[in-house]
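Sample pair:
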Amino acid sequence: MVNDHEHHSHEDAALSSLATLMPDGSRKWLKPKLAKGMHYHRRKLVAYGLIALFTAIPFIRIQNNPLFLLDIINRQFYVGGRLFLPSDSVLLMLLGVSFLLAVIGVTAAFGRFWCGWACPQTVYLEFVFRPIERWLERKSKIWATFLRYVFNAMISFFIANLFLSYFVGVDALKLWIFESPGEHPQAFLLVACVTGLMLFDFVYFREQMCTVVCPYARLQSVMLDRASWLIGYDRSRGEPRKHGKVKTEGAGDCIDCGKCVAVCPTGIDIRNGLQLECIACAQCVDACDDIMVRIDRPKGLIRYDMQSNFNAELQNKKPWHWRQLLRTRVVVYFSLVLVCMAAMTAIAHERNVFTSTILRGKGEPFTVDASTGLVRNLLLLRVVSRQAEPLQVMISITSEKENTSSLTWVAAENPMVIKGNARTESALFITAPSSSFSEGRLPVRVIFRDLESGHENRADFILLGPHAPESTP
């Protein structure tokens, strides 16, 4: 039978593991204090640099192409100023795999460095929204709540538009913003919805995004190893805890001041060990180091270190060294990243400067001239340029079955002129004798050749025609 003391101990332990849960099951709203230490100032520089970069990227152009744009509606994707189309699925897949492997590699080496230092959720919440809220509370207790929602709504609107510019482009976004909502009702609704989601996230949901929604926290356990660099509490040095500045015999360095918990943006107690809620922001490190200086004890009770050093006795600890990055799993991860990037570069270098598609024309599949017996097919040629400069593409026709001289074709435009990073469509009429068709089919090959580079795209197509009349006995 479990006695009352043991029951309450287990209950307290369970509640302490849920940092944002009150004993009655309601949500515990966090108002973390700020520890302005060395790591905070470094994170601040990184955060504002990333915000500036995130804001500037949609406006940067390379050879008149966006630096980065995921235009899903028009199915055009720009990465590094180069155009990628859905037909470049292999390149896009390699890019995605490279990014995923890089995240896994960084996690294996440095833990959740991404979460605490570079994730947009952390960067905007900790260095934009919360600083403004703290400033408002200092200035006006009466108007703080009202002004908080006003400022948060304005910032959310800005972030929402910035986020959308990565998917629709800044040119389209300017029209949506400065023109009447009645002219772009769907676009206006989209901007309003994204703004509402941003406001909900940064004003209400906050740390729940990291602890409840984001899967990265739950996956980190399979990415980390004993040599991973992360934030932890040195139990061998800190325990047993004892209040007071004067250290007594047998007591650890931790004075149980609770400041590491007060500054944590996810509300955890780092002294309980590695937890999925920890985003490695190092606020607890700065807070603890400040206390250690005040009570004249060495810094580093809470620190960045290898995971193995937080589970080892003091005399068995090994200092972290950059050679730890050369361990097998980290080397394998980043080697695979290099392989994927090399393959992507090679494929991108060899790909044509344009893509071509052949569609059957609208209306009847073919027409027959009763006087001459010639069969005419209407084709629709679609050419998409992948470069900034205009292209001139010459069209020609060949057939393995029929003598080319018996085929005639007339293109609405030959050579086709395609503007940089644009799409052009043109009609092509192909005429062949009815005797050339076998069971109503005649295979031909359409050749698209760039007059400047000499690159060729070849597309096989089946012309349709009449079936030969069945012979009677």
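The chain is about 40% helix and 20% strand.
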